[in-house]
Amino acid sequence: MTTAEQAPGPAADPGDASRLEVGDVVSVGGLSHRRVLALAAAAAPGSDDPVDQLMIAALREDHPTIPVPTVDPADVDPARADRRYSLVRVRQLQVTGGSTRDIVVMRGDLDAVMGASRASRENRSLLRKNARHGLEHGWRALVIAAAPVAEDGTVGDFVLQGFVKLRHFSGEEHDATSEDSYTRVDVWSASLRAQHWLNVSLIVVLSLTGYYIMDPFFGPTPGSAGRTGYLMGYVRFIHFVAGFAWLLVGATRIVSAFTSPDRYLRWPTLWPLKSKKDVRNLGRVVKHYVFLRDEGPLYVAHNPLQQLAYSSIYVVGVLQMLVGLSLYALYKQSSPFWQVVATPVQWIGIGPMRLVHTMLMFALWSFAIGHIYLAVRADSLDRHGGVSSMINGGVWLRRGSKPVDSPKVG
C-alpha cells in the first residue's frame, strides 16, 4: 500500500523507495500518460515520502522534458485515517498552449478517489477494470484526480485522470525467487505429478511402438533372406503393455477427479468456462499468448484457455484408449466381451480404424508441442516456475497478487 493510502503515522523510511517500482500509467481523463505521471509527481521539495521520490524519479527518467511540478509545503494536505487520499495544490502548472493555471491534485486509494471525483460511467468502468487486472499481478493503483482553482481561490470539481501502477520488489535485480517479493504456492500434489510423468513416458512408448507397427522402418522384413526374427512381436507386446498401463493411469486420474480432497485435482479445475469471468478472461489470455497484451489474467491452476485445451486432450485421450482397445479386441474374438469391444472396428473397418488411431496420436503430439512451448514461454515472461512445478509441485507468485482462482497471495 502506498503512503498516500495509509493513515498518518511516522515518516516513511526513505530507503523504502528503493523497494518500489513503477508500472504502466493508465489515463482516462484525456491527459497523456506523461501528464498523468507529472501530476502523480506533484510533491513538496525534499519530501521523504517514498512514493513522492519514486514518482519524481520516474518522471525525470522517462520524460526528462516534462518539469516536475513545484509545490509549496504549505499546499500539501496529506492523507488521513478518514480520508485515503492526499491533496496537493500546484501553482502555475503549465498546460496546453503554454499557459499556466493553478490546480489541486488528489492522489490515493482507488475507491476513495473515485468517490470524491467525477467521471463518466465508461471511464469509471475502464479504471476499475485496469486496476483489477493489475491487482492480479501484485500492482497497486495510485489513482489521480485533478480540480481547477479559480482566480478567487475556489476549487472546482475533481475529475478522474487515471492511475499509476506501483508494487514492491526485492532489490536491485528484481530477484524472481526472493521471498521478499515472491512467495511459493503449493499447487500440484505428488500423485498428480506422478500421473503427469507416467502419461508422458507411456505416450512416448506408445507413439514409438505404434509408429513402428504402422511402418516398420528398420529390422528384418518377411522378404529378406533367412529368419525374420520376432522383432515385431516384441514391439507389439511392449505397445500392448504400455497401452494397458495407460488405461490404468487414466482410470486413477478419473477417480481422483471426483474423490480427491485436493481442489486442484478435482474436475472443476479442468471444466472449461464455468463462469462469466472465465469467458471474459479467455479473450485476455489469447491476446496475451499472441503478444497483443503485456499481462494476462493470473490463475494459480489453469486459465480459461488451458481449461479448454486440457479438457479437450482428456477427450482425445479417452477416445484413443477406446480405439486402441477396439483394435486389440480383434485378436480376442473367442471371448464375448472382446467381441463387443471390437464392434466399432467391424462397423467402420480395420483400415479406417487404424487411420483414426494414428491421427489421434498426431493430435496428442500436436498438443504436447504447444504445451511445451507455452509452458516455457510463460516461465520466461512471468517467471513463476511453472515448468519446474511439475517436479517440485509449487509455483512462485508475487506477494499481494490476487489470482482469479485463489485468495490473495501473501
Helix count, DSSP H or I runs of 4 or more residues: 12
Tell me the number of structural domains: 2
The side-by-side strand order for the widest beta sheet comes to 1-6-5-4-3-2
Residue fraction in strands: 5-15%
CATH topology of the largest domain: Fumarate Reductase Cytochrome B subunit
Order of helices and strands: EHHEEEHHEEEHHHHHHHHE
What's the CATH C level of the largest domain? Mainly Alpha
Class by SSE composition: alpha+beta
Distance between termini? 13 Å
- Identify the CATH homologous superfamily of the largest domain: Transmembrane di-heme cytochromes, Chain C
Average pLDDT confidence is 82
Percent helix, as a range, is: 40-55%
Approximate shape: elongated
- Gyration radius (Cα, Å) is 30 Å
Q: Which oligomerization state do the chains in this entry correspond to?
A: single chain
CATH architecture of the largest domain: Up-down Bundle
- Major sheet summary line: 6 strands, antiparallel
